[in-house]
Design goal:
This protein is mainly α. It contains 16 helices and no strands. It is found in: Cell membrane.
C-alpha cells in the first residue's frame, strides 16, 4: 500500500462539521422519539431535554479542549488512550462503531417505510436497499462531496424546524379566523407538569440521551478537518446552541399545543399534528419528506463515523490492514463497504424483528451514548493533569466543576435508567459490552502505532 494513501485529507470546514453534528443529532430521535419521550414524562420532558443539553455542553467543551491540546489526534481513541489507557480507548471505539452501525441498520428500514407511503406497491426490502446504496455512494465519492451533501440535508430539515417553530408560536399566541390562541394551559392540565412524577422524567432521559447522541461525531472528523484547533471549538459552540434550540423550542410548542396524553398512540408524528392544526395543505406529505431527509442525513453521518473508526483501527493494526486502504479520492473504501455490509445484514434482522425494532435499538443506543459521554468526560478530567505544563488556545471555563457535574449527572442517569428500562434492552446491551471486553482480553496485546 502506498504511503501517500495512508493519510486522510483535511477538506472539511467549520460549516461542514457543524452541520454534520446537527445531522447526526437531529434525526429519528427528534421526529420519531418525540412521542415516546412525551408519553414518559409529559410536559416535564422540557426539563429532561434542558438537563441533557447542559450535560452535552459540558461534555463537548471537554472534547473540544482535548482536541485542541492533541493536534495529531484522528479520532476519540487518540484523545482518550493517552489519558485513560488502552482498554477505555478500545471500548470507546467499538461501542461508537456499534452505535452507528445499529443506527443506520434500523434507519434504513424506517426510511423505506416512509418511502412506501408514496410507493405502496414496492416491498420494504427493495426500498431499504435503494436507500442503502444511495448513502453508500455518497460516502464513496469523496469526503468533500459527502460533507456538502450532509450540509444541505441538514440545512433543509433545520429550515423546516424553524418554520415549525414560527407556525407553533402563532398558534399559541395569535387568534385568527376560527382559531383561538391556545395559550399554555396544556402545560399544567391533564395531570400537572409532572404527570408521571420523577420516574417518568428519569425514564425519558434515555430517549433524551439517544436523541442528542451523534453530536460527538465531531471527535471522528479530526483527521479530515482544516485547522481543528480553531474549527472544533467554534463548531462545538455553534452546534450546542442550535441543538438545544431545535429540541427545546419544538418540544415546548408540542406539549403546549397538544395535551401530552394525546401525543402517543396516534400514527402520525407530533410534528405532523401541529402542521395540520395550522391548516397547511398536504402537511402529512411535507413532514413525511422532512422525516425521510432527516433519516437519510443521520444514516449519512452514521456511515461516515463508523467507517472512520474502522479505518483508524486498521491503521493501528487492530483489524485487517485492508480496511486502511484509501482510494485516489482519499476515501477508506473497504471500511465503508464493511460498514455497509453490516447495514444490509441489520436491514434483514430488522425486518424480522418487526415494529419493536426501533424501540429496542433506541434503548440500546441510549446506553451507548451515555457511556461515550462518560468516557469523554472522565478523559477530560484527567487530561489536565497529564498536560498541565502545556498551554492551550482553548480551555474550559469553570474546570473541573463542569466536568464533575457531567460525570455525576451521567452516573445518576445511568442508575435511574437501569431501574426504569426494559430488562431485555439492558440485557442485550450488557451482552454486547461483555463481548467487546472479551475481544479485548483475547486480542488486547496489540501494539499501537
Amino acid at each position: 500500500m502506498e504511503k501517500n494513501k495512508q493519510q486522510l485529507t483535511r477538506t472539511m470546514t467549520s460549516r461542514h462539521i457543524t452541520m454534520m453534528a446537527l445531522g447526526g443529532a437531529i434525526g429519528a430521535g427528534l421526529f420519531k422519539g418525540s412521542s415516546a419521550a412525551i408519553d414518559m414524562a409529559g410536559p416535564s420532558v422540557l426539563i429532561a431535554y434542558l438537563i441533557g443539553g447542559i450535560i452535552l455542553l459540558f461534555v463537548m467543551q471537554g472534547l473540544a479542549e482535548m482536541a485542541v491540546r492533541n493536534k495529531e489526534a484522528r479520532t476519540f481513541r487518540d484523545l482518550v488512550q493517552s489519558v485513560l489507557g488502552k482498554y477505555p480507548a478500545y471500548f470507546l471505539d467499538w461501542i461508537y462503531w456499534k452505535m452507528w452501525v445499529l443506527n443506520i441498520a434500523a434507519e434504513s428500514v424506517v426510511a423505506a417505510i416512509f418511502i412506501q407511503y408514496w410507493l405502496p406497491e414496492y416491498p420494504i426490502w427493495i426500498l431499504a436497499l435503494s436507500v442503502s446504496v444511495l448513502v453508500t455512494a455518497i460516502n464513496l465519492l469523496s469526503v468533500k462531496i459527502f460533507a456538502e451533501t450532509e450540509y444541505w440535508l441538514a440545512l433543509i430539515k433545520i429550515t423546516v424546524i424553524i418554520v415549525f417553530i414560527i407556525a407553533g408560536l402563532i398558534l399559541l399566541l395569535v387568534t385568527f379566523g376560527n382559531h383561538s390562541a391556545v395559550g399554555f394551559a396544556n402545560l399544567t392540565e391533564h395531570g400537572g407538569f409532572f404527570p408521571n412524577g420523577s420516574t417518568g422524567l428519569i425514564a425519558a432521559m434515555l430517549v433524551v440521551i439517544y436523541s442528542y447522541g451523534g453530536t460527538e461525531i465531531i471527535g471522528i472528523t479530526l483527521a479530515e478537518t482544516k485547522n481543528p484547533e480553531k474549527v472544533v471549538p467554534k463548531a462545538v459552540r455553534s452546534t450546542l446552541v442550535r441543538i438545544v434550540t431545535f429540541y427545546l423550542l419544538p418540544f415546548f410548542i408540542i406539549v403546549s399545543l397538544i395535551p401530552w396524553n394525546e401525543v402517543n398512540g396516534v400514527p402520525e408524528s407530533p410534528f405532523v399534528m401541529v402542521f395540520k392544526m395550522v391548516g397547511i395543505p398536504g402537511a402529512d406529505h411535507i413532514m413525511n419528506a422532512v422525516v425521510l431527509l432527516a433519516i437519510i442525513s443521520s444514516m449519512n453521518s452514521g456511515l461516515y463515523g463508523s467507517s472512520r473508526v474502522l479505518y483508524t483501527q486498521a491503521v493501528d493494526g487492530r483489524v485487517p490492514k485492508i480496511f486502511a486502504y484509501l482510494s485516489k479520492r482519499k476515501v477508506p473504501v473497504y471500511a465503508i463497504l464493511m460498514c455497509t455490509l453490516a447495514m444490509y445484514l441489520g436491514v434483514i434482522l430488522s425486518l424480522y424483528a418487526g415494529s419493536k425494532t426501533f424501540d429496542f435499538l433506541m434503548g440500546s443506543l441510549g446506553y451507548t451514548v451515555l457511556f461515550i459521554w462518560l468516557i469523554i468526560a472522565i478523559a477530560h478530567l484527567k487530561s489536565r493533569k497529564k498536560q498541565a505544563e502545556h498551554t492551550s488556545a482553548y480551555e474550559v471555563k469553570w474546570f473541573p466543576y463542569t466536568t464533575w457535574i457531567a460525570i455525576l449527572a451521567l452516573s445518576a442517569i445511568l442508575i435511574g435508567i437501569i431501574f426504569t428500562t426494559s430488562i431485555i434492552v439492558t440485557g442485550i446491551t450488557l451482552a454486547i459490552y461483555l463481548f467487546i471486553t472479551l475481544t479485548y482480553v483475547l486480542k488486547g496485546r496489540y501494539q499501537v502505532n
